[in-house]
Amino acid sequence: MRRSAAWAENLAFLVTTNQTITMSRVRISITMSIDGYMAAPNQSLENPLGVGGMKLHEWVFGLEEFRKTHGQSGGETNASSMVVNEMFENVGAVIMGRNMFGPIRGEWPDDSWKGWWDDDPPYHMPVFVLTHHGRASQPMQGGTTFHFVTDGIASALQRAREAAAGKDVLIAGGASAIRQFLAAGLVDELNLSVVPVLLGAGERPLGDLGEAGLVLEQKRVVDAPGVVHVRYAVRRGG
Amino acid sequence: MRRSAAWAENLAFLVTTNQTITMSRVRISITMSIDGYMAAPNQSLENPLGVGGMKLHEWVFGLEEFRKTHGQSGGETNASSMVVNEMFENVGAVIMGRNMFGPIRGEWPDDSWKGWWDDDPPYHMPVFVLTHHGRASQPMQGGTTFHFVTDGIASALQRAREAAAGKDVLIAGGASAIRQFLAAGLVDELNLSVVPVLLGAGERPLGDLGEAGLVLEQKRVVDAPGVVHVRYAVRRGG
Question: Are the beta carbons of B120 and B140 closer than 8 angstroms?
């Protein structure tokens, strides 16, 4: 009896695995302080991650892999390099919240704001920006195009999946977008890079998710200088 | 110039290391959900860790090392076993908050409540309970004695250090006691066991510590089934 139950479980696992390989997945990859914040309070033009928020990302700035994608040479290689490489591996489209795109709130005064990045943003693929205020799609150099979605996360995901053409969709942030996609049970994989920082206040990507009925399974741990990277598989529970 | 600065730093490091070896340290070792809680809301006699809080500790219940300290045989051994063993290694006294000792609030009606554990609690050393309501020390079987401290955390630490006689002091919990000791800059080592659970509400041991000026350094990561154990050195920053 026990053996046949185990056999059935293995079969179910193989079927699930097989589906996972061929399906486009929805992934999250964020850096979080040990007190649960992914950005500090008071975001502004000068402080895209809020006042003090940049120290969340100190683990990444010195890496060769990061510098390369931002047009710089040099830098070091360590256990985090693999994690940085994986972030966009097999990703065909990105979704982000409006605050991750820029500091402007309310109506767009004009089309002059084109994201926190330079003319060649580090995405090189379609990026869908969640907003309540419509705007024409904004093509950039290097293959990035910003599309503005005004009818919610499900619609953004549908458009991103179509654009990704079988590849994965990355929910890049910010905290509110992350929470919404997790709460709706739309996420397959959560990559947390946890840094030894106590921000004390700010944006909590995993706040208020107790009622979402999510089941997380720890899949991989990478011990790197000044950061631990943990990958979780995410599904809706029974 | 640079070489002599490096030499001075190395010397300072050696002196610091030497002091650390001979000094009693204050350590924290707690299990936390990935959304930052170490207990769920609504603690009661039936639910010492709040409603749903027990699932934080599923990683430990099946371990031989845990079962042994709770008078049970059998169980498994995995990467978490070492972490469980280390928790009380070289610890000479324990400090805990009143809610970790019991569900009673306000004045003690009598001395009948003797902790969440049985007649032989798994500490086997002096345990200092933070409370606003005095009570005679309570000796238990197996070497545990509960002492009740009514004059604050600094006094509790002083008494615990004396009792520990050169060994370390473990701040066992709960969240409020952890926060107070961290905020006061009294902690040398923080061991976080992070589990893939989203509680959504409860007690946050690392909440509101943004102004404490703490500098944390990631010292060790242990990848274990269903949990990742991260050790941080803690000090007051400049």
Answer: yes
